[in-house]
Structures are given as C-alpha cells and as structure tokens.
Amino acid sequence: MDNCLFCKIVEGSIPSNKVFEDDSFLVFHDIEPAAPTHVLIIPKKHIASMNDVQSEDFAMIGELHRVAQDVAIKLGVASTGYRLINNCGPDSGQAVAHIHYHLLGGTKLGALVQ
Ligand code: 5GP
Ligand code: ZN
C-alpha cells in the first residue's frame, strides 16, 4: 500500500529492528517502547484496522497468535506475562493504519484503561 509506514517497513525501505519474520508476518521493536519489552506484530498483508479484517483473513489473524506465543518465549516474557493489544480507530489512539498488535511485557503492567 502506498504511503503506509508499516508496508514500507515490510518492504525494507524504512528500517526496523526485527525480532521475527516469515512469509506472512513481521515482528519488530516499537520505536518508542512503552515497556521493557515492546514489539509490534504485523501481518505483511496491508489491512488498515481490525474493522477491515475480512473472512478470508481470520485464519491468518489466528496464526498471528502463534507468532505472539513464539515471540514471547524468544523475548523471555512468556512465563512472567505480557499483554497483546490491538488499537482500532480514533478512540483507541490508533496512529498507524496497518493492523498491528503491541506485545508488551518485562514489567508489571499498569491498568488496562487509562
Ligand atoms: P498505535 O498507536 O497505532 O496502536 O501504535 C503505533 C506504534 O507504532 C506506536 O507505539 C509507535 O511508537 C510505533 N511507531 C511509529 N512509527 C514507527 C516507526 O517508524 N518504527 C517503529 N519501529 N515503530 C513505530
Ligand atoms: Zn500497510
């Protein structure tokens, strides 16, 4: 997708600090970490937000949870705990219109809604 920041990260025209990559997903460190562990898990397919996930995408979005499990183990937070967050739309503060899941951990996380 033209002019999508995360598509550019997928293409490699904008650099990222990658944690994991396969044919369908990319995981990279958030540029402004909100916790000691803060990575973004994205499908390589451009989907603007949770609202735009189509029927044919749900199996892939399910697979994303397997990626989250593997990354949590790799980053050492599987046993201590972590949070997986998807922001969708203005009230959530979604800033990048390419669906992504924040995986946060490495500390006791605060209240979910602030
Ligand atoms: P949102 O608010 O849309 O759920 O989260 C977007 C996230 O993308 C933010 O946590 C922000 O720090 C991160 N981010 C924005 N631009 C970049 C970038 O160029 N590189 C990386 N690695 N993360 C970014
Ligand atoms: Zn995109």
From TrEMBL:
InterPro entries associated with the record: Histidine_triad_HIT, HIT-like, HIT-like_sf
Pfam family for this entry, one: HIT
Motif Histidine triad motif, residue range(s) on this chain: 98-102
Domain of life assignment: Bacteria
SUPFAM superfamilies: HIT-like
Catalytic residues as annotated in Swiss-Prot or TrEMBL: H100
A GO molecular-function annotation: catalytic activity
Record CDD domains: PKCI_related
UniProt domain HIT: residue ranges: 5-114
UniProt xrefs under PANTHER family: HISTIDINE TRIAD HIT PROTEIN
Protein name listed in UniProt: Histidine triad nucleotide-binding protein
